[in-house]
Amino acid sequence: MSSQNMTRRTLIGALAASTLAAPSVVRAQDLTPDVRTSDPDLRRNTSSFVTQRWQDHFEALDRVTILADTGSRALHYWSKDGTDYRLYPTSVPMTEELTRRGYTEVVRKRVAPTWTPTANMRERDPTLPAFLPAGPDNPLGTHALYLSWPAYLIHGTHDTRKIGRRSSSGCIGLYNEKIAELFDLVPVGAQVRLI
């Protein structure tokens, strides 16, 4: 491996680590062109964080608001009065066919969610169980926010390798400690948009 490639990999690794630690500090558009790479050997599970404005997506900020950006693999949260803005790294659906976009809202919340795979999930993977109780093997993690679209959730994950990747069957996943934080901030009725 050339010295230049070694330096590039080291720099990208350091930037990726700092992006996960402080996502709004380092963004993809802030990188110099020689750091942005098309090297197929480099695999990233970090997001290209870009801050968003709620005004670009919602008519009013009259309640807690969430924007899940599947392109940058980030979830944006705004408090009802707009004074609290938070940005979380996420996992997103594996394929376009599994990705739903549009406006919805949080209709239910649950600590220690159970999981029942959909018929489509079980058709794609017949080894999936019909039901999984809460616990470390449950793919919904420790907390879940259920959306008005059936079978679509914002939830935690015990498998931290999934964050920053296209790895879900349609849901938006967060680190367990981040979904626990978001869970406390988001009431039923919060407006949500997936883009």
Description:
The protein is of the alpha/beta class. About 20% of the residues lie in helices and about 25% in strands. The chain has 3 helices and 10 strands. The strands form 2 sheets. Strands 3-2-1-10-5-6-7-9 form an 8-stranded mixed sheet, covered by helices on one side. A hairpin with a 6-residue loop joins β2 and β3. The longest helix is centred in the first third of the chain and has 19 residues, at about 5-20.
Shape: globular
Structural class: alpha/beta
Strand order of the largest sheet: 3-2-1-10-5-6-7-9
What's the mean pLDDT score? Answer: 82
Uncertain residue segments? 2-45
Distance between the termini: 39 Å
How many helices? The count is 3
The percentage helix is 10-25%
Computed CA radius of gyration, to the nearest angstrom:
18 Å
Please count the beta strands (DSSP E, at least 2 residues each): 10
Sequence of secondary-structure elements? HEEEEEHEEEEHE
User: Strand fraction band?
Assistant: 15-25%
Biggest sheet descriptor:
8 strands, mixed
